[in-house]
Structures are given as C-alpha cells and as structure tokens.
Amino acid sequence: MKIKPAFHAATVAACLLLAGLACPASAFAQNDAPRGDSAATAAKPKAPAAKTLSPADRIERHIAHLHAQLQITPAQQTQWDQFAQVMRDNANAMGQVVDQRGAKFATMNAADNMQSYVTIAQQHARDTEKLAAAFQTLYDAMSDAQKKNADAFFRARGDHPTHRKG
To answer: Among residues 12, 127, 10, which one has the least CA distance to residue 59?
Structure first.
C-alpha cells in the first residue's frame, strides 16, 4: 500500500464546523485529493454535485444548512455572520496546517510525522475555542425554542457513529 502525501482537507475542515464535537480519527486519513480554493474567499455555495464541490463550497453549503437548521432570524444575523466567519477562518487555518504537512510528508521521518499530528491537534484546539466562543454569543441571542432546537441538533450530531467513543 502506497502512502499518499496529502490530507483530505475538506474532511478535516468539516471537523471544525461544529463546536464541541470531537474530530473522528478518520479525518486524518490520507488522500491525494487536492485542496480547493481558500475557504475564506468563497462567497456563496455553487450548485455542482456534492462530489465535485471544493472544500470552500462544502463549508459554505454546511454554513447554509446550519443557518436553516438553527432557524436564524434577521435579528440574530450579526451574531450568525461572526460565527460563520470563524468557521471559514478555522477551515482556512486548518487547511494551511494540512497543506504544510502534505508538502513535507514525503521527507518526514516517523518523529516528524507524529509531531505533525500534534500541530494539527493544537490547531484544532485553538479553532474549537474560537468557534465555541462565537457560538456562545449566537446561542445567547437565541430564543428558548431555538436553543432547544440547537441542543437537539448538536446532541444528534454527537450521536453520529463517527463521533462515538469506544
């Protein structure tokens, strides 16, 4: 089996999109799929089939899905926009870390390889902190019904088989 040099950046970025959820180990599976345009530069999702979406387009699609699922109101749009921007920024930051690892992968020794996972975990932790803070501001602006909906949504995401411990 040949080891491929790059991460599947979209999968890693997707791990950052929901605050408080552990990133499944499968997100660190290696793949030779190229990383798309910067997530920060994508303005709106495009309409191509899911398997042809760039990582930036996948993030925008996810942001739009969350917006609808959480039933964000016009009065909450400012808090939402801040939360969504943190998601984009986090995906971009993680993409850079993943790209750096991919560029060095062919010459890494085992210790370098292990350290690259530490770097990714540290970036994930920083990003999750920023995302949680931005989400708290949004959550505080939600109605009780929206909070109940958000709680159920995030709880269901945490029950996803790839997020289970054990």
So the answer is: 10
Both tokens assigned to 124: 């994930």
Bridge partners, 140 (sequence order): none
Cβ atoms of 120 and 12 closer than 8 Å: yes
Q: What is the pTM of this model?
A: 0.67
Residue with tokens 């979406």, as numbered in its chain = 53
Orientation of helix 77-104 relative to helix 55-69, angle to 10°: 150
* Mean pLDDT per 10-residue section of the chain, whose length is 166 residues: 40 39 37 40 48 88 96 97 97 94 96 96 97 98 97 84 52
Strand blocks (E) in the chain: none
b/e sequence 30-63, b meaning 16+ C-beta within 10 Å: eeeeebbeebeebeebeeeeeeebbbbbbbbbbb
